[in-house]
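Board notes, transcribed. Complex of a protein with 4-nitrophenyl phosphate.
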Amino acid sequence: MPNILFVCLGNICRSPTAQVVFEDLLATRNLDADVWVDSAGTADYHIGEPPCPLMLQVARRRGLEMAHLRARQIRPSDFERFDYIFAMDRVNLQDLLRLAPPEHHPKIHLFLAYAPDLGMDVPDPYYGGEKQAERVLDIIEEGAMALLTQLLRTEICP
Ligand code: 4NP
């Protein structure tokens, strides 16, 4: 069973949200004991901080709790440890490909690669308001579902 890492810039908005949404999807299918899920940021701006208040509030309204999470920066060992690394946007993808040793490049993908109707990037909600945060959560929920469907088809076989 794979270990999965979600990566954005600050690890306070998009990637922690993807982490809890994906963990929730796994739990409803009794797959949560089989798959390790984590998130990280490419930048060091917010290390040790909880998720941004707006995403926290919007996620909580949908029954998703992420107040326990703390931001961390991606580290070299993550490229060894994780089987799949999903970038929340194309800048994050380029940063990851720059940081990762070439032999680990095949495990790095765009989060929305399996939901082409949603575009390529999960928009950054950091400077947006509540409406933007709701939209980001909609995109992440749909993208996570598409991703899980793909993984169940190709990798996770319960
Ligand atoms: P995230 O959002 O990458 O989804 O966690 C951001 C968080 C912080 C900043 C930008 C985006 N920032 O510039 O500090």
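The pocket of 4-nitrophenyl phosphate is lined by residues 8-14, 41, 45-46, 124, 126 (CB under 6 Å). The radius of gyration is 14 Å.
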